[in-house]
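YM 10:42: Cupin 2 conserved barrel domain protein sequence, as discussed on the call
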Amino acid sequence: MATPDVRADGKADVASWEPIVGAIGPKVREVRQLLGLSLQQLAGRSEVSAAAIHKVERGDMVPTITTLLKLSAALGRPIGFFVDDADWAGPVGVHVRAGERPAAPGDWAPAASGVDAAAIALPGERLRGAGVWAEIEPGGGSGDARSVRTGEELVLVTAGVLAVDVAGERYRLEAGDSLHFPADRPHSWHNPGPETTTAVWWLLRG
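YM 10:58: structure's back
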């Protein structure tokens, strides 16, 4: 861990610590995502509120030593990892176990009903894409609200049928079919069939 520069008057140069402090939040977020933990799951493990963790990750709050100790223990990393100014050579891949999938991104389908969904990938410091796995009951869907976001969206149906509306264009996707479209166009979807539909979404932010 680097030591701060000391001026002639004996006081530490605060500016030299700013990059280290600023890196704490991104490191917390990236380790959490590498472990496939949602904010709520990490809050349960660490006894630090999800709101406080969110503020730390965004850089809106510098954690106290007590908070950082709790987070480092819950994430399985020494506290020095979060305050070391050396570059982090973490794992290349992000492994999300089937039983530990975090919640789907909040803007993916905020009005969905009859849908069991979870994230299979979330954007981080190094990787921008997100993925969602979903099971859609007969009649279930994204709801009346039309999702609109920047970027691109790709959906692959692995079982059942999915009806998708993109800016007034209607598509019927069956098992093995995919649809790629700009996410900034109003779009919605539902399961019109008698069986549960399984589909995977890939989301790339603009």
